[in-house]
Amino acid sequence: MKESEKKDFKDTIFLPRTDFPMKANLPELEPKIIDFWEKNKIYERALETKKEIFSVHDGPPYANGNIHLGHALNKIIKDITVKYNLIFGKRAEFIPGWDCHGLPIEKEVEKRIGKNASPTEIRRESRKYAENFIGIQREEFKRLGVFGKWNEPYITMSPDYEAMIIDSINKIWKNGRIYSSYRPVFWCPICSTALAEAEVEYKTKKSPSIYFLFPAKFSEIEGERFENLFAVVWTTTPWTIPANFALAFNPEINYIIAKKDSRYLIVAEDLAGQILGDFEKVKVLKGYIFERKVFSHPLFDRESLGVIAEFVSKEEGTGIVHIAPGHGEEDFEVGKRYGLPVESVLDESGRGNENAKQYKSYFYTEINQKVIEDIEKKNLLLKKGEYEHSYPHCWRCKNPIVFRATKQWFIKVQDIKDKFIENIRKVKWIPEWGITRIESTVMARPDWCISRQRAWGVPIPYVICKNCGEYIWSEYTAEKIKQDILEGKADSWWEEDVSYFIPENLTCPACKSNSFEKGKDVLDVWIDSGLSFRYMKSKYRESFSFPADVYIEGTDQHRGWFQSSLILSVILEGEAPYKSVFTHGFILDEFKRKMSKSLGNVVSPSDIIKESGAEIVRVWAVFSDPSEDVKISEKILSEVIDIYRKVRNTIRFMLGSLGDNPQVVPEKLFPQDIYFLKKLEDTEKEVNSDYKNMEYHKVLRKIHFFADKILSGLFLDILKDTLYCDLPESPRRLSGQFAIFTILKSFLFLISPIFSFLAEESYQHLPEVFGFKKRESIFFESPDRMLLSFSNLSSIYEKEKNSAEELFSVLIPLREKLNEVADKMRKEKVIGSSLELKVFISLPDFPYFEAELLKSIVEEFFIVSKVFISSGEPALLKVERYSEAKKCPRCWKYFEGESDLCRRCSDVISKFYS
RNA sequence: GGGCCCAUAGCUCAGUCGGCAAGAGCGUACCCCUGAUAAGGGUAAGGUCUCCGGUUCGAGUCCGGAUGGGCCCA
Predict the structure, then answer these.
(1) Are A91 and A154 within one domain?
(2) How much is the pLDDT for A425?
């Protein structure tokens, strides 16, 4: 046959027709789709029609810096949750939030305008800084295709939010849960502020390490006399020695009296060798002996008391721990038991104060040196050196921090831990081990230190008695600050005089004095974000249901937001603020290392968006199981892109196959189509349940498998002959097109929470066939219009789906067998296309199917030209090249006969082109 | 150092109550098609289920320990 004749027949077949492009060019396309959603208020309008509320409550990101992949992963998972619930009829309003106050922004601003800036300047600049990044992050999140009320987010620095905070904290105070107390807290001497546990980082640090002696003020032990008796003590913080008031011994471990160079030394037995070298062991005794024994302070003229503490270990040091109750958490606890003074020897900038006596006004690192020198002068130093250990550092300025006793405000939580646990157990934690994690963090936590000596935050409403230093919390003050904030005077606390904030006749409850100054503390930012549920409750009454249906954050938030929200909610509302909590993992590189600037393995979402599109980020987010850590690499991204392409091309082919706009709904569906509709129904059910369980990576896998193997590899492949060559509006072709349309609608609907851009783009290209009238956006659609399992498709389908499945469960293994044989024949160059084959099979009786129909089904399903069926157990009997036949130039199937075209094709030509 | 979690083909994951001769997709190799064409189809090769020990007739699955990685804490 000549080329020209071939061409002629190509013009007579019905190839897919669609203007849906194969290449997406997402970086350019996506902004247009976002524009479409925004201009037409698609999300807002989709919400309007729904009633039942489903609340995905946003944990506010911190408003500094551009978003990173962790943010993207988080918001995408939230978005998928929101969209899934939305399309299934829930009013799923996503109100994004931003966390604005706090140290990181304040430090950043300080860097720009100088440390000496006034609080009002700092606050003004901090506010600008946060606003700027809210704007930036908002655009970045929108660019990812995340639906949300971007124009009415909640912002922790907005006047009504700040007022809500003051109101809430005052309510907790009225409940008697807030107290002030001296207490050693993490203190950054560089930033001059107390830090929360969440604000310290542990890094390796070299510290001085000294072994030194406390002279005993007693010489008799268990009836024996030891003149020149000393306790051996080890420390890596010599500057705390001026604050020493005790020496702690473990009651259970063995101590010895060692004679060395005419001195008797007390030290733990197991450690003596490595500390002392050569010595004479004089006596062994248990630590409890030393309780209430008195030693002399090595520097000052005062005493140091022997005490007992379980935490003293025999693994490290000397088995005797120097206790400075004002400078260590455990020291403080021990001190409290023995009634020791809680004294700080440092001022807020880390320099010696009055208590430090001769070390006054030296920085604590200088005190280290001086103390060592002085101890050496007194001949009490045994050994000195350096010690490398993991030590707390300030999260912001990265400098080592200290423990320092200061007066702070606390929320009492120790006494109601059982209430927290009780409420934790009512929540569904996904994955399940989340409950272990939150329970252990809640159980381990001390009372909540809520005060910070900073400017960028919500002021704590109290004043200080100038005469006696009493801290006085006042509802009057709280109310005044709150009113000012609401009237736009957020900084009045720093601008007005103290008299403005207190009632006229206020007297100090402790000393009756009437001279006061304003408190200098702002609230811990975890209070801000932890109260977000309360803001949602009051401001978004129409769209937020308390407790929220789900909180979704990274696993670090068990200690952070999940906990702060839980504590505040249990105190204020008597229950947890969420019904379920989903946690996702962190992002690692291809070698499972965390991302860090120093490793140079940081991937930013904007790079991927620029290169490949936001949809690729969305699909990546569910490519791995997000409840564990997720990896990203070039390889993974290219696989994600391949999945996208496959899904896109499959959709494109289906759109094209409906390009001739079939309108007549077929009365009869062919068994092939019914079988694939059944596959669709199965997939719908599985995918729906995966969505419900938030197993989005399983959704992706099923969607991909369905598009690739079921549709592209089977259904659409076998339908090509019908679609291309059968007469339009012939029963077989219409049935096929109807099935395609049914599948396509459903498929687009199911992928829309994840592939939001692709689903919308495809929906806009969807032809209105079989009487289907489109809506403005796919997000206006509903399951009953889009899903097979939610519609009541013709009784034919319901009636015949089981028999169709039965038939195909027999045909599929035969097809696989045939493929094996055909592959061999191709490799041996016997055939090329499978249409060159004729096949002999045996099948059991299928009473539902007539012989002719059955034969045509099998030919179509096998994509061969001729099938002979005999009766028997299912088997592939013989596969041969169909050598006696000739190829129809139109449909390329082989047939026997004299005519140029096969019968079907000549029929179509005569009917369609006459 | 402590708590929690993870560990299955080169990559990403399935693997319910212990019965598996261990599955899928991607990638790879080879082949076909050229009427989804910067597409489409087929076949095949890939695994001592991280390691060591235990329970059991039987363990990827249960228990103990080790190693590596993550989060949180000290």
Answers:
(1) yes
(2) 94
The nucleotide whose C1' lies nearest the CA of A445 is: B73
A600 has a pLDDT exceeding 80:
no
Cβ–Cβ under 8 Å, residues A380 and A298 = yes
Q: What percent of chain A has pLDDT over 90?
A: 75
Residue A338 pLDDT:
84
Structural domain that includes position A62: 40-166+529-584
Q: Examine the domain organization and report whether A681 and A782 are in the same domain.
A: yes
Question: Nearest residue to B37, CA vs C1'?
Answer: A22
Distance separating alpha carbons of residues A338 and A381, to the nearest angstrom: 27
The verdict on A818 and A778 lying in the same domain is no
Q: Are residues A137 and A224 in the same domain?
A: no
How many other C-beta atoms can be found within 10 angstroms of the C-beta atom of residue A848?
Answer: 14
Give the number of C-alpha atoms closer than 13 A to the C-alpha of residue A52, restricted to the C-beta side.
Answer: 7
pLDDT of residue A797: 87
C-alpha to C-alpha distance for A903 and A888, rounded to whole angstroms: 9
Is there a contact between A628 and A592 (Cβ–Cβ < 8 Å)? Answer: no
CA of A827 to C1' of B30 (A): 9
- Closest-lying nucleotide for A708 based on CA to C1': B25
Tell me the backbone φ, ψ of residue A44, rounded to 5 degrees. -60, -45
One domain for residues A650 and A692: yes
Q: How far is the CA of A696 from the C1' of B16 (A)?
A: 19
The domain boundary, picked from A332, A365, A398, lies at A398
Determine the distance between A859 (CA) and B40 (C1') in angstroms: 19
CATH at A871: 3.30.2320.20
Chain B nucleotides close to protein (CB under 7 A) are 1, 3-6, 11-14, 24-27, 30-44, 69-74
Q: A813 and A787, same structural domain? A: no
Q: Record the tokens describing residue A491, joined without a space.
A: 């900084």
Distance from CA of residue A178 to its chain's centroid?
A: 31
CB A652 within 8 A of CB A20: yes
- What's the Å distance between residue A753 CA and nucleotide B22 C1'? 33
Instruction: For A351-408, write each residue's pLDDT tens digit.
Output: 999 999 999 999 999 999 999 999 999 999 998 888 877 788 887 678 888 988 888 8
N-terminal to C-terminal alpha carbon distance within chain A:
23
Q: How many other CB atoms are found less than 10 A from the CB of residue A408?
A: 22
Q: Distance in angstroms, CA of A433 to C1' of B56?
A: 28
Interatomic separation, CA of residue A387 and C1' of nucleotide B4, rounded (Å) = 30
Residues with Cβ within 8 Å of residue A532, at least 6 apart in sequence: A57, A59, A60, A97, A154, A156, A565
Say if CB A130 and CB A525 are below 8 A apart: no
Q: What is the pLDDT of residues A394-420, one digit of tens each?
A: 876 788 889 888 888 999 998 999 999
User: A289, A306 in Cβ contact below 8 A?
Assistant: no
Average pLDDT score over chain A: 92
Judge whether residue A13 has pLDDT over 70: yes
Which class for A591: exposed (0-12), middle (13-18), buried (19 or more C-beta within 10 A)?
Answer: exposed
Single residue among A743, A763, A793 that ends a domain in this structure = A793
d(CA A159, CA A539): 13
Question: Residue A414 domain-assigned?
Answer: no
Query: Do A258 and A311 have their domain in common?
Result: yes
